[in-house]
Amino acid sequence: MSIFQRRLASSTYALMKSFERRLKKLINLIDDIQAGRLNLDQLAAQQRRLDSVQDVREEKAADDEESQDGREENEVSEDLALGGVVAFTLAELESERFQVEKLLQLSRQVFEVGEESKFEKLRDILQDPRYQSEKIIIFTEHRDTLNFLARRFESLGFTGMVAQIHGGMNFDERDEQVEFFRLPAAEGGARILVATDAAGEGINLQFCWLMVNYDIPWNPARLEQRLGRIHRYGQQHDPVIILNLVAGKTREGRVLKILLEKLERIRKELGSDKVFDVIGRLFRGVSLREYLEQAVTEDGVEETEKLIEGTLTKEQVEAIKEREHILFGEGGDVLRRLVYLKEKIDQETYLRLLPGYILRFLEKAVPFMNIGIEGDPDNIFFLVAQKPGALDPLWPVLENYPPAQRHRFTVYRPRNRGEAIFLHPGEPFFEQFCSLLRARYGREALKGGVFLDPTVQEPYLFHLALIEIDRRPDPAFPQFSQREDLEYRLAGLKQYETGYLEECPVEHLLLLKGARFFPSGAAKLATAAQDLRELAKAFALEHIAWPLVEKRRQSLQQSLPEREDFLRRGYDYQEAELAAARARLADKIRAGDLQAKAELTRIKERQKALTAERQRAMDVLHREPELIAPAGVTFLAHALIVPETSPEEKKKYDAAIEAMAVKVSWAYEDALGARVKDVSTPELARSAGLSDYPGFDLLSRRLAGEEIAIEVKGRARVGEIEISENEWARACNLREKYWLYVVYDCASSTPRLLRIQDPFGKLLFRAKGGVVIDERNIWEAAEMGILT
To answer: Taking the CA of residue 778 as centre, how many other CA atoms within 13 Å lie in the half-sphere pointing to its CB?
Structure first.
C-alpha cells in the first residue's frame, strides 16, 4: 500500500503508471495459473521470496542507491514489490484485477482532466515576478513524475529550457545536464532542472538558490540530502529558498505539513538553518513511513501529530549540534559524513584496483590458452589466436555481442557501453574464459606448486577450497525431492607442520612469487601433505561450513512465525471459500436441486483434504531448516610455501610493498575525484615541474582546486616508519598541505590506509631532521577516515 500512497502524494500520473504495472502483473499471474504454468503452492513460494525485497527508499539514502541497467535501484525494488499478492485463489486474483482496473480507470479520468493543484501551484512559482529570471531545481522521488513535469513544462512554452537528471543516466549524461543547467539562460542554458533523488550523488548545485520539493521523501535522510544539494558550503546566495508542495487537506499531507512547519518553527527559534542539516539524525530510530501509513485513519493522524510534536524539539537539535561539535569540531557538517564517505570511497577504491588484477590475470593466463593480447592493455585491446582454433571455444559466447564489439576488450568500465566488452567477474565472456582455463589446468592446480614468502621463517601449506552449502533432499516431502544448492564460499587455508590451521584470504598466492626449486628443508612437510589435507578439510567444515549453515538456519527460524502466519491466512481464505460454497450447495439441495449433491460431496472431500494439506505445508516450513547442511569441501588448488632467503629478492619484495602502498593511496585520491601525479622518481618529478627530489610521492589536485603533497609509506604488515630529512623539511614547509599516507598490510589482500594531515605538526616538530615513528603514534594521529 505504501507504494500507492507515495505515488498518490507525488502525482496522479505516477499513481496511474503504478496501477498499470500492477494490473499487468496480475494479468500475467492469472494467465500463468490458468495455463498451468503456475500452481497455488508455487505462487505462495514465489511470494515468500518477495519478503526479502528491500524498500530501498526506506532503507537507503539516495546517495547509496545504485543504478541497474538504466533503472534506479528503488525502481527495481518497487517493480518487484508490485508483483506481491496476498490472494491464494484464482477467484481472489480475479477480484483484485477488477478492483485495480476500476482504480486505473478513475486515475486516468482524473489525469485527463489536466488539473493538478500541485502543478498549478508550481506554475504560480515559475510565474512569480520574484523568481521569473531565476533558475529553479525541482526534486521528485519518482521518474514517472519527472516525465510528467518535463512534458507539462514543454507544453507551457519551456521547450529547450528543461534539464533532467535521474539515476538511470550514466555520469557523462548527468554532467551534460548539469552543465546545461549551469549555463546562463541568455547563452542557451536551462532555466529548470527536474531531478530524482537518486540522480544527485556527487552533484553540487550551489549556483542555484531556489528549490521545490514536488513531493516529500518519507526517509528523512533523503530529505536532508535534497536540501544539501544547494544548501551547503559554496552557496553564495542568502537566503536559500526551499518550497515544499504538500496537499495539506489529505491525511498524509497533514502529517507532512505538520512536520515541515515544526522544522520551520525550530529554525526560527534557533535563528539558524542547522535544523535542516540534522533531519536524518533527528529521526534516527523513528520511521516516517509508519507515521504516514498510520495516517490512513483520522485517529491515526491525530496520534501522529502528537508523536511529531514530541519527537521534534529545539532542544534536540541543539543537543545534536553540541555533540557533533564535540566530536568533529568546527568542521562537523563535513566530518559527520566521513562514515558514509569511507564506505563509498572503499567501493570506488576497489573498482579502481580491480582492473589491475583482471589485467594481470589475463596477461598470465591467455598464453596458456594459445591466445595473445594486442593493442593497448590500459585502454582497448584485442585477443588473437596464437594457434588455429584457439578462440573457437569462446565463439558461442562472443556471438551474443554486437559484431562491432566482439573483438574489442577492456578491463575498465567504458564510457560508451557498446565500445568494448568490459571484462570483470560475472561478465559472460570473462566467465567462459575462466571456465575453459579451469577445465584445462584444474588438475595441475591440485598437484600443487611451490611459492616463496619473504615474511615467514618456516614453510607452510596453502589450500584453496570451495565450500558448498545445500538443502538435502527428503523423499517424504515432494517440495524437497531434489537437492538444491544454497551457497558457495571460497576459502583460503594456511596449514603449518604442527597441524595449526588458520583461514586466510583466497588471494594469498597473488602476493607471492613462484619458486624455481624445491627446498630440502620443506621435504618433511611436503611428504605429510596428503594426511594434512584431510585435517584441513575437517577444519573447513567445522570452522567455515557449519557456521554458514547455522546462519541460514537461524534466518529461517527467525522468519518462521511470519511465514506460518502467511500460510495460515492462505488456507483460512480457502477454507472460508469452501464453507461458503458448501452452504450455497446445501441451500440448493434443500430447494430440490439433486445435481448439487455430487458437488457437495466433492466440497466435503476437498475440506477434509485441505486440513491435511495445511498440516503438510506447516511441516514443510519446520522441516526446511533441518535439511540445510554442508554439501562438502572441494579443494581447487594446493601450494607449498617456503621462506625467501635471497637478500636481492627481499629487496624486490620491499619495492613491491612500496608500489602497493602507492597504488592504494592513488586509488583513494582517485575515488575522491582528484587528479593525481606520481612524482616519486626524479624523472616523474621533473615532468610535473618539480625538483628531482620534492620530498613526497604523489601530487593530488582535489575537485575544489586544492593541491596537496602526499608522502606514502608502506609496510608488509604493521610497524614503524622512517621519515627522511628531505621529507621532514618539506613537511615543515608545507604543513597543512602535506599529508602522510601510511599503508599497512600491503602483503595481504586487504591493505589498510591511515592518513595524517600536517605530520610535522602532529608527529615531527620535536625532531631535528629524519625521524622514526612507531605504529602507536601513527594510529593516534591518523584522520578518522581510515580506509580498511
So the answer is: 26
User: How far is Cα 677 from Cα 620, in angstroms, rounded to an integer?
Assistant: 61
Question: How many CB atoms neighbour CB 542 within 10 A?
Answer: 11
- Tell me the average pLDDT across 299-310: 59
pLDDT number for residue 318: 57
Q: Note whether 536 and 495 are within 8 A (CB).
A: yes
Count other Cβ atoms within 10 Å, centred on residue 22. Answer: 21
Query: Amino acid identity of 445?
Result: A
Rounded Cα–Cα distance for residues 619 and 563 (Å): 12
- Domains of the chain by start residue, with CATH: 2-113 (no CATH), 117-330 (3.40.50.300), 340-443 (no CATH), 448-645 (no CATH), 646-781 (3.40.1350.10)
Cα–chain-centroid distance for residue 19?
28
Helix residue ranges, H only, 716-781: 725-734, 759, 775-781
Q: How far apart are CA 705 and CA 153, in angstroms?
A: 36
Strand pairing class (210-213; 241-244):
parallel
CA distance 146 to 119: 12
Q: How many CB atoms lie within 10 A of CB 169?
A: 19
Q: Which residues is 714 bridged to in the sheet? A: 743
Could you say which DSSP state residue 68 is in? B
More confident residue, 84 or 109: 109
For the ranges 184-193, 215-224, 347-356, 362-371, which has the lowest average pLDDT? Answer: 347-356
pLDDT at 768: 43
**pLDDT confidence of 58, banded at 50, 70, 90?**
low
Query: C-alpha cell of 134?
Result: 531565476
Q: Which residues contact 532 (CB under 8 A, 6 or more apart)?
A: 461, 495, 499, 525
Instruction: Give the confidence band of 537 by pLDDT, cuts at 50, 70, 90.
Output: very high
**Using 50, 70 and 90 to split pLDDT, how confident is the model at 418?**
confident
Between β-strands 210-213 and 771-773, what pairing exists: parallel, antiparallel or unpaired? unpaired
Distances from the Cα of 136 to the Cα of 148, 182, 310, angstroms:
17, 11, 34
Q: What is the pLDDT of residue 329?
A: 41
Mean pLDDT lowest for which of 46-60, 405-419, 448-462, 549-563?
A: 46-60
Q: What is the pLDDT of residues 642-697, one digit of tens each?
A: 887 776 666 666 777 888 899 899 988 888 888 899 988 878 887 888 877 788 99
Candidates 724, 740, 732; CA nearest to 761 is: 732
What is the reported pLDDT for 788? 44
Q: Is the peptide bond before 217 cis (omega within 30 degrees of 0)?
A: no
One-letter amino acid of 725: E
The residue behind cell 506481491 is: 84
Q: What is the pLDDT of residue 368?
A: 93
β-strand pairing of 501-504 with 484-496: antiparallel
Per-residue cell: 268 = 526560527
| Phi, psi at 380, each rounded to 5° | -105, 130
Contact 119, 55 (CB under 8 A): no
The candidate with the shortest Cα–Cα distance to 320, out of 457, 401, 220, 240, is: 220
Across 346-350, 458-462, 723-727, least confident range: 346-350
Neighbours of 717 (CB within 10 A): 12
**Distance, CA of 55 to chain centre:** 13
Count of beta carbons in the 10 Å neighbourhood of residue 199: 26
Return d(Cα 603, Cα 511) in angstroms, integer.
Answer: 70
| Helix 546-590 × helix 40-49 angle, to 10° | 140
Helices (H), 50-89: 56-59, 73-81
| pLDDT, averaged across the chain | 78
